[in-house]
Design a protein that fits this description.
The protein is α/β, with parallel strands linked by helices. It is 28% helix and 27% strand. The chain binds uracil.
């Protein structure tokens, strides 16, 4: 069944992201980091002809050009609710393809700090996705976007893994961290890390399940790649910046390659 899609007028500034379709200069692909502070560096590392577009709340937007393809880089902030708002508004401006570019904590021994994880699906340990589809509905990535990310990761010779994320609304209890203010983890989450491990899930982060379910519900195409900045089989802590820097360099190449492949395939 064809879904109704309500596009904004070209000059309508969307309330939360604070930009309009005219600002996008034809971009239909968006790269979505969580952190607004990383958008500018990401846009400049990804491509050329970079341009600041807007900044409102957690949504900072820059344009970049990757091999002739105009691409938007727009932060989503942390967690499902702000992803949900951002994705709705980007869709209304004509964005059709989205790649989350985030950080994550691995729960599998064989995945190291600084590696990249391409998520093909996510456990819906979030609240936002339930506002778009019933809990039985899967959080799966777009096959074409994921295939492009994997092919690009191979070509870049990146240290990458493909797996299932556990997307939690919280950084501490939902990810079974005990180094919090009270150290208390509710019974529901006690032992949950071991269970996700046993089920073969690869990583914890906070946005991917919302992105995947919302993209499917809205008729969009989403994928995700994250850099490993915590190794939960060894520690609850976030690693020194060198781990992020290693993953960042690989993720830039992966996203560049994926964008080129998607554009060549006419998406
Ligand atoms: N982001 C998360 O949500 N968890 C981690 O462990 C690291 C990054």
């Amino acid at each position: 069944m064809a879904r109704k899609q309500n596009f904004a007028a070209s000059d309508e500034v969307l309330y939360h992201v604070g930009i309009c379709k005219n600002d996008l200069q034809g971009a239909t692909i968006a790269i979505l980091p969580g952190d607004p502070g990383r958008v500018e560096a990401m846009a400049k590392a990804l491509g050329t002809d970079c341009k600041f577009v807007g900044c409102h709340r957690e949504y900072t937007s820059w344009l970049t050009t990757i091999d002739g393809v105009r691409v938007l880089v727009c932060s989503t902030g942390m967690g499902g609710p702000s992803v949900g708002i951002g994705v709705e508004e980007l869709a209304r401006m004509g964005i059709t393809h989205m790649i989350r570019f985030g950080t994550t904590g691995t729960i599998q021994e064989e995945i190291d700090l600084g590696d990249c994880i391409i998520n093909k699906a996510a456990v819906r340990l979030d609240g936002t996705s339930g506002h778009f589809a019933p809990v039985e509905f899967p959080a799966v990535a777009c096959f074409e976007v994921t295939a492009a990310l994997i092919a690009a990761a191979k070509e870049a010779n990146a240290d990458y893994h493909v797996g299932i994320s556990v997307s939690s609304d919280t950084f501490w209890p939902g990810q079974e961290r005990y180094d919090s203010f009270t150290g208390y983890v509710p019974r529901r989450f006690q032992g949950s890390l071991k269970e996700w491990q046993a089920l073969g899930a690869t990583n914890y982060e906070m946005e991917t399940s919302a992105l995947f379910v919302i993209a499917q519900a809205l008729g969009l195409h989403a994928g995700a790649v994250c850099g490993v900045v915590a190794k939960r089989t060894e520690s609850e802590s976030i690693a020194p910046k060198s781990a992020y820097d290693k993953a960042f360099a690989d993720m830039i190449k992966i996203v560049q390659g994926a964008v080129v492949k998607l554009a060549k395939a006419g998406k």
